[in-house]
Specification:
The chain is α+β, with helices and mostly antiparallel strands. About 30% of the residues lie in helices and about 30% in strands.
Length: about 200
């Protein structure tokens, strides 16, 4: 759990090899760190990604559509390939040596018709359902913003399902604003996502 007395300490390692920046273990409270994922985390990360997506969206989607998406999006092989992508960065929340949440950042993508400079996409940000409300999501978001800023980018953007009110409210609280919409397909279901963005640093 993070509070006003918790400190965030960052060390010097590579973040997005194609650009300058830093990221390493971030202390966010007792027995809790946020660290960069490596390919050796692929199996555990795939299991966490599968579970947290199902927890977040399973109750509101057709089981067949959900199964189709989960079994293709979160295999260990697919996650390992994403971890090897030099434009991607995964951050893991580790509490008492167990993965409790993660975020994926991706450089080089930008939504259509946006004038924000130097964008990075927040592809995913999830924590275990039991950890919601204990500050881990907030700590993860702050680390994403700090990391993107330190890497020299100017803005962060994301997409969120229009029916996911909890997530929409979370992003609004963190200063994101709706700038458009996009489609997201789960199985046979075509859904509408909000595109949201916020600046994180002056344009370079």
């Amino acid at each position: 759990m993070i509070d006003n007395n918790d400190t965030i300490r960052m060390k010097n390692t590579a973040f997005f090899p194609s650009v300058p920046g830093t990221v390493d273990d971030v202390s966010v409270g007792r027995n809790t760190i946020i660290r960069r994922a490596t390919v050796h985390d692929a199996d555990q990360l795939a299991a966490l990604a599968y579970r947290t997506f199902e927890e977040a969206f399973g109750p509101d989607n057709d089981p067949d559509d959900m199964a189709c998406y989960l079994t293709t999006a979160f295999t260990p092989e697919k996650i390992a390939a994403e971890l090897k992508d030099p434009a991607a960065l995964f951050l893991l929340v580790v509490q008492n040596d167990r993965l409790q949440g993660y975020a994926k950042l991706y450089a080089g993508q930008a939504p259509q018709n946006t004038h924000l400079p130097n964008l990075v996409k927040l592809v995913r940000l999830y924590v275990n359902h039991a950890s919601i409300g204990h500050g881990l999501g907030a700590a993860l978001m702050q680390t994403c913003l700090d990391t993107v800023h330190q890497a020299g980018y100017g803005a962060l953007w994301l997409s969120v399902w229009e029916k996911n009110r909890r997530a929409r409210d979370f992003y609004l609280k963190w200063g994101f604003h709706k700038i458009g919409t996009d489609v997201f397909v789960i199985g046979q279901d075509v859904q509408t996502d909000w595109i949201m963005a916020r600046t994180v640093a002056p344009a370079l």
